[in-house]
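anyone seen this seq b4? input:
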Amino acid sequence: MIDFRKKRLFLLDMDGTIYLGDQLFDGTTDFLNQVRAQEGKYLFVTNNSSRSVSAYVDRLNGMGIPSSAGDFLTSVDALIWYLRGKYDNALIYAFGTRTFRQQLAEAGFRVTDRLEDGVSLLVCGFDTELTFQKLEDACILLGREVDFVATNPDWVCPTSYGSVPDCGSVCEMLFRATGRRPKFIGKPEPEMALLSMEKYGYTPEQTVLIGDRVYTDIACGVNAGIDTAFVLSGEGVPEDQERFGVQAAGVYPNIREIWRSMV
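predicted toks r here
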């Protein structure tokens, strides 16, 4: 098991880990207060690319958790970090929400949501504004052999009423149609955890990642060489560790049980 009292950087998934839908999990506030009490830092790390950081700030503040932009790292942040120096002058087709396109444009990239001859890269995010036209455009571009990058491989996004298709499901559909798979940037790739430690100056030994999905959250931490805590309050079930061949350092029913181990 993990000695959370020795940790200083806490990387937290959100959906299914600290809340579900509009319901904040019991113990979340106590846990965050305890992290601050032991002079640690928590960082909300999410694969959800459909919303801006400001939207997450507003959401958590509305739930009673005082938050600012510096408390978040999204898969779009990691995507931008990856694209810099590789696609600075490329025309990018952004398959995602309007907010997703705006974030890429504000980072200085040339972005379009229309089929154009000069497109050399297709980037795919979690698209809650999905249309068949976007799917058709993506298939045409992939047939032209443009590069293909996506934010995250999550199959579904949990909600209060069930699950909806996430970026990974859309990319699987595109694979079935074109035979092309993307390079994923978000969890389970290690970039988000590595970027967090580099940005805030913590070591792997001081860092822990807490999440509800073995194949993204836990795999990200394992790939980055840090401790991981698997919570059973979201999508995942204990058998997922064997199914995906990824073992967490500790398994907990929920965030409240982690807090109880810290006090």
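Residues 4-47+187-262 form a domain with the Rossmann fold fold (CATH 3.40.50.1000). The two ends are 15 Å apart (CA to CA). kinda curious what u guys think
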